[in-house]
Amino acid sequence: MTMENNDNFDIQIAQELHLDSHHVANVVKLLGEGATIPFIARYRKEMTGTMNEEMVAAVQKRLEQLIELQKRKESVLSSIREQEKLTPELEQKILEAKTMQEVEDLYLPYKPKRRTRAAIAREKGLEPLAAQIMAQNVDAVERLASRYVNAQKGVNNVEEALQGAKDIIAEWVSEHINGRNRIRKIFHTKGDLSSTVIKGKEEEGKTYQQYFDFSEPIAKAPSHRILALFRAEEEGIIRLKIKVDDDFVLNSLESIFLKNNNPSSELVQEAIADSWKRLLEPSIETEIRNFYKEKADETAIRVFAENLKQLLLAAPMGQKRTLAIDPGFRTGCKVVILSETGALLHNETIYPHPPKSDVVGSMRKVKSLVDAYKVEVIAIGNGTAGRETEDFIRYIKFDRDITAVMVSESGASVYSASKIARDEFPDYDITVRGAVSIGRRLMDPLAELVKIDPKSIGVGQYQHDVDQKKLGESLDQTVMSCVNAVGVELNTASQQLLSYVSGVGPALAGNIVSYRDENGGFKNRRELHKVPRLGDKAFEQCAGFLRIHGGDNPLDQSAVHPESYHIVEKMAKKLNVKVGDLIGNKELIAKINPKDYVEQDFGLETINDILKELEKPGRDPRKTFEAFEFDKDIRSIEDLKPGMELNGIVTNITAFGAFVDIGVHQDGLVHISQMADHYIKDPNEVVRLNQHVRVKVLSVDVDRNRISLTMRK
């Protein structure tokens, strides 16, 4: 019997995900050849049946799981084979196992263990006694046990013999697959997640007060509550247990193992009770905890990834001359001027707020900078003194319309203290770097946020409590998806932004920047071949996502892949025009029949994509920027009153609701039950990150710094 191969995986994945097996096989092949998810989804639509990135990612994830399962089967079979205990029947069961849990259950009796009570009893020669008692055909159990009394083996009397036999039976019960599965089902269907406060921790753990005496069916517990409870347990505030009814469990196990009603059966019954409390309960409870923790992690990671995606794809202000301010009271407001491409042109500090309160001098300075540098937009950080600085700026009478925008500072301090920022601005301090980050974040959120560890951006839910490896992988995939969806300007992109382009990575990104610095930029995509270590495969993966405006080839500014340029050249030739004449010319493009250009490797989907690109080359999928203003009369949490209706901007989305900034330095919570007049399961059905919303204040708790909001009519 041989292990399953990848062909079987293709079929299994296709069945599980309800996809065509031929398309799945193509995705598996492309992944094996080093293709990225964005590339496969964008440029191999005929091979995949137009799978989107989510579907390709689902195939990849399931493939990895099946490969991991196969490796575990091989390891288990090898271990049992070395013990010379592998039978054809057992091998068949292991090979046919569908889940990791099935494999582990089959392996359990053969898994090397520390010296258990059962192992010690076996060493004393008591396994035959255990087998006879387990058969439950013996009434005179003490007489039977007396035959196994042997002081040399450490069995000094009948009681010790019977106890050893029960220890062996208890282990058999704990390793019985049907028994374990039955208990798992009881935990899932009837288990209660219960917590109690540890004595003396009441004050320290008052944040978790609602969990001091708490119980809820674990199957119904939402992910955020499970993670909160696990965090409280980790911090030593509560004791957490998954409780099930002992009598119900014992009755269930006895229905499997009790076959008679005699003294042997009574001993088996005692062994079952011991097995449950000593072996099964701790083992299965740990399994169930891990199961629900993993589920909670997946939900939290999914929420985080969706929030990150929305933040990265937030509408950019675009390339505008920008004055950015990192506000402050005592230390003043750091002011920087950025060019249209984000280059730092000037920096200084003003002191419009107490204790210096140099309002007139600060106004004069800002006005002169706006005039001297022809500033078009002002970006103001939303941290300490943010609202006060916004008021100060809006009070200045400029000679022309200047847009002033509050910008989230979340993560800006992380960037300003990072090696990336130090390398970029070695001659400037942390405050200047922070102001630069605020300004650039307004101009192009994606380009700036890729410089920050996604976990530091502050849009997650219990991000430090979830599996960090899975979180990192998910967030990296999200960033890559967003970067490639937007496209990257090859001659101006930072090394960090380039590193997320399909097929590039940090090392090649560094080589691209070095080549660009040495040669004055790229004139066309073909020139990428000259970058050290950027071979044909990397070029295939990255070329379509990199843009060159004003280069040799007008197609280089679009998402048309170089492998398809010949198709556009055919289109232009047939219309008797130049390739450049086609770009943005809807009338000419309307004359093209896509079916005339279908080839073996380029089907109708690809041709239609090419035509869309020609119509709007390098189109940005992000929305158009819209300015936002908070209500002018609301400054602090003390100004809030129930019933007030206010402007807000969504800053974070969780499984239980959304947090909204209403301009009082403390976000309010719109609980999921207050997000719509009808029932919703997911807050993302109603709001998106950075969305401008109108909210009503439900309640204000100044002492606990909590604000309850509603979006219901």
Describe the structure.
The protein is an alpha/beta fold. The chain folds into five domains: 6-110, Arc Repressor Mutant, subunit A (Orthogonal Bundle), CATH 1.10.10.650; 117-302, Orthogonal Bundle (Tex N-terminal region-like); 322-443, YqgF/RNase H-like domain (Nucleotidyltransferase, domain 5), CATH 3.30.420.140; 499-615, DNA polymerase, domain 1, CATH 1.10.150.310; 637-710, Beta Barrel (OB fold (Dihydrolipoamide Acetyltransferase, E2P)), CATH 2.40.50. Strands 6-5-4-7-8 form a five-stranded mixed sheet, sandwiched between helices. Strand 5 and strand 6 (344-350) form a beta hairpin. Helix 12 runs antiparallel to helix 14 (246-257) and helix 15 packs parallel to helix 22. The longest helix is centred in the middle third of the chain and has 50 residues, at 263-312. It is globular. The model has no long low-confidence stretch (mean pLDDT 93).
Strand arrangement, major sheet? 6-5-4-7-8
What best-fitting shape do the alpha-carbon axes yield? Answer: globular
Q: What is the rounded distance between the termini?
A: 65 Å
CATH superfamily of the largest domain: Tex N-terminal region-like
The Rg value, from CA coordinates, equals 33 Å
The averaged pLDDT comes out at: 93
- What is the CATH architecture term of the largest domain? Orthogonal Bundle
Total of DSSP H or I helical runs spanning 4+ residues: 29
Helix coverage percent: 40-55%
Overall number of domains: 5
Beta-sheet strand percentage?
5-15%
Q: What is the fold named in CATH at topology level of the largest domain?
A: Tex N-terminal region-like
What is the number of beta strands?
15
**Could you name the ranges where pLDDT drops below 50 across 5 or more consecutive residues?**
none
Q: CATH top level of the largest domain?
A: Mainly Alpha
The class by helix and strand makeup works out as alpha/beta
Q: Let me know the largest β-sheet.
A: 5 strands, mixed
